[in-house]
Structures are given as C-alpha cells and as structure tokens.
Amino acid sequence: MSIRVMVAFSNDLFSEGVTRLLEDEDDFEADYISAGSEILDGDIESADVILTDFPTLYSSFQKLDPSTKNGFILLDTDCGKDNIISAIIARNLKGVLLSEASPAVLKKAIRSVASGDIWMDKATVKDLLWSVNRLKKERGEVLSPKEKEIVALAGRGLRNREIADKLRISELTVKTHLHRIFKKLGITTRSQLINYSMRNPAAREALFPGK
C-alpha cells in the first residue's frame, strides 16, 4: 500500500522539488500545496504524512485540530530550539527532520512516521526532555503578582529601565525580581523568559485582566 504524502513548505520551488523526489519511490504518492494556502481538516484527510516547515505549520495549518491523526514531520529550517519544542507540544508533531538531512534519511523518516513511529534526532529528544522538566518546575514554582507583571512586560520586549518606569519601582528592584524569576523557572536567558511569557496566559493576565 502506498504512503500518501502531502508537502507544504513556505517555498513553492522547494515543495515541488521534494514532491518530485518522493514520486520516484514506488511506495509514495506525493502532492504539494502552494505556499500561503489556508488548509482545513478536509484537505488533509487522505494524507498519511505531512511534510512542512515552521512558518507553514503556524499559518496554513493554524485552523486544524491539533489532535489530528496525520503524521506531521517538521523540517527544521533553523527556527530555534524553543520554537521546535513548542511545535512538538502544541501541534502534536510526529517527527522533526534536520535541514541538512539526506534524501535517504527523509524517505526513511516518512516511512517511520507512516508506520506509527516517532522520528527525532538525539539533540531534539534531549531538548524535549529538558523542556518537559522545565515545565514541571514552572508548575511547581508560583510567581508572585509582581513577578507575573515583570514577566509580561519582559515578554513584550521591554528593558529593565522601561519595566521599572512602567511599574514605578527601581531598576535594581527589577533586576532582583528577574533573578528570582529565573531561579524559579529554571531559565538563564531573556529569550527563554520571553518564550515562557508567550506560553503562559497567566502572565499576560497580570497586565491585561479579562483579555
């Protein structure tokens, strides 16, 4: 039985090239969807595996039910570790493929996901386990109302001085709060804090109640 593959990347030339590559295999039936197209559940019912990239996953596929049984494989086009982990968790990915993967590895990944397995390199698995442990730590540590406000403001890109002015506290106090926040959340960088803010509605609620 043939494996039905849908190819949907943000670059039509790349999508067409990958589709032609897969069509050379007797056990693949491949087709691609043009970049920018809005894709609904009915459009992918017949696909066993869907190859996509991060921009397309969160644009064309945004209205799909995250619990869909289709095997999504994300091609990592240098979209960042945190974004990949978020996609694995939020979009129920079945595979992550490095951009430098060979055609043979690509085909092997498709066959693996189509058979019900998960396809991820060791580095991605390590990052995923680290993220799960971090989420457990986040749930175990409760941020104070003031810390939530600071997280929300930092998530909007404000610097320490701007946060201090907004909350009418000293910049030193902001730094002290951030030190405690980083320790509670088990993070070390501002980008990780911003990612936390994006994934946690409670932080935004501290600044925008009811929204």
Give a verbal description of the structure:
The protein has helices spanning 12-23, 54-57, 81-91, 103-114, 122-140, 145-155, 160-167, 171-185, 190-199, 201-205; strands at residues 3-8, 28-32, 49-53, 71-76, 95-98. The chain is an alpha/beta fold. It has two domains: 3-132, Rossmann fold (3-Layer(aba) Sandwich); 141-205, Orthogonal Bundle (Arc Repressor Mutant, subunit A), CATH 1.10.10.10. A five-stranded parallel beta sheet has the order 2-1-3-4-5, sandwiched between helices. Helix 2 links the parallel strand 3 and strand 4 (71-76). Helix 3 crosses helix 5 (122-140), helix 6 (145-155) packs across helix 9 (190-199) and helix 7 (160-167) crosses helix 8 (171-185). The longest helix is centred in the middle third of the chain and has 19 residues, at 122-140. The chain is elongated, with a radius of gyration of 21 Å. The chain starts with a strand and ends in a 6-residue tail after the last helix.
Summarize the structure in short.
This protein is α/β, with parallel strands linked by helices. It has helices at 12-23, 54-57, 81-91, 103-114, 122-140, 145-155, 160-167, 171-185, 190-199, 201-205, and strands at 3-8, 28-32, 49-53, 71-76, 95-98. It contains ten helices and five strands; from the N terminus they run E-H-E-E-H-E-H-E-H-H-H-H-H-H-H.
According to CATH, the fold-level topology of the largest domain is: Rossmann fold
Shape: elongated
- Number of contiguous helices: 10
Query: Can you give the helix content as a percent range?
Result: 40-55%
Residue windows where pLDDT falls under 50 for at least 5 positions: none
User: How many runs of DSSP E, i.e. beta strands?
Assistant: 5
Q: Sheet with the most strands?
A: 5 strands, parallel
Distance between the termini: 49 Å
Q: Based on the coordinates given, report the CATH architecture of the largest domain.
A: 3-Layer(aba) Sandwich
